[in-house]
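Q: How would the structure tokens look for this protein?
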Amino acid sequence: MATPRAKLQAIRLTDAAADRIKYVMANAEQPIVGVRVGVKNGGCAGMAYTMEYAERIDAADEVVEDKGVRVLIDPKAVLFLIGTEMDYKTDKLSAQFVFNNPNQTSACGCGESVKLKPAAQAN
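A: Here is the predicted structure in token form.
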């Protein structure tokens, strides 16, 4: 009998990203169940990452629990995010979430948008 294959986790968090999400959730004005991550069309490279508070889990959401944090992934974004590591970086002039995505093929010069390929085409 074949052993069932483990489900691939769409996104992983660094400790810094998990800590920041916990902080944001603890200081939200209203109760939230996690953060929703997705991608949208736009920008000079074609796509941009999105993040927002999630007040509820939608039936189609991909739910990822990592380091004590719940990340909900928009179902339209899952193939573009498989294998992604989400980090939180701070430097002298900015603090932001950073997506280290193996499906990213290029980015615009300003860093606001990226070109992504679905994970199924990653070979």
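The chain has a mean pLDDT of 84.

The radius of gyration is 15 Å.

Upvote if useful.
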